[in-house]
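Have a close read of this protein, sequence plus structure tokens, and explain what the tokens say about the fold. Thanks in advance:
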Amino acid sequence: MRIFSLIFALAAMFAAPLAAQISLPGVRLPGVGEVIQPLRETVDRTAEAARREADDLVRARLRMIDRLVSRNRNIIELDARGEPARRGEMLVMDAGPELEKRLARSGFALISRERVEGLDFYVARLRTPDGMTLTEAEVELRGLLPQAEISADHLHFQSGTAESPALAIASAAGSTHGKSAPVGMIDGAPGAVVPVAETRGFAKGAPYPSNHGSAVASLLASAGANEIRVADVYGTDKAGGNALAMVKGLGWLIARGSKVVTISLVGPRNAVLERAIAAAQRKGVVVVASVGNDGPAAPPAFPASYDGVVAVTAVDGKRRALIEAGRALHLDYAAPGADIRGLNAKGKRFRLRGTSFATPLVAARVAHALGAGRNWRGALDREAEDLGRKGPDDVYGRGLVCGSCRGR
């Protein structure tokens, strides 16, 4: 971190003349140890504070999951890894044509087997036997279908919050004018005041306006994305944001022509969603995703950690990395994710904070590069401002993109 580099630079600055044993009549200069020790103590206190903050974020994440499961035990349960998923359901790929025959005497029931629109692969949705946990179901199915890809239907969570109403709002800054490639968004639905080309629901009660979805869509628009489609994977469903809904939403967005898809959601690794994103990438679609807000001690965030996904973190108005920013298995870019503004579902302007809100700014930049027929990676790398240590790093990635963007 920059603070540690500064502290050690100061220590070296003071230590150098002392090491040269400068002496002045009647003046006692402090020894090197006397100078460096307080600096070491400052470093130790700063590191300890950072560790406590990271531990607090991990505990907050676990409490949130525990509350969600305890309040919705009829539709949500934990899988073998302790991750929340839709209760009593498993997802299966590559099971072969004899799936129903193999299931006949197993107690599992086939709810549906369908081809995912726009992605050209099939997913089977199974009901587990009564009283069987997801952990037990996974073990049973792996024995029953050894060649198949099996997964729980994991839930994903939005990674940002509206902090408070914004009373004084500057006009949108950092927008890029000109035509952009069509952008898809997987989130909650935006409110009516946020102009989008099309919205479709993939959850119970969807499309249903949400503050998070409205903010993300408004940031896309403020950054100059001019053809936005939204797959609402939440609606009013307590088990919304599940992997299957995201897969179907992604397929629909691609079928409708989206060339960039932004996802400000985080969850665990899921085989079905990973397959869907790989299929989208083979079609030339760029997927952009946030690293989440569970802190650096949290598990790696997905879908940001899948191969080829553009992983985005966030900085505040002073270009400092957000303390709550999560991590991914790789990091591409940073963008403003605090001290920015967006619209909620009722059209009110709110101050926003979180990696959720950095992600659409990067997605809009990708869309503009594609719309102009340019190589998007080269365009973003040229724009990116190097922060932190020189070159790509695990705090800011390849640099800050859309640094002057402040929302609307």
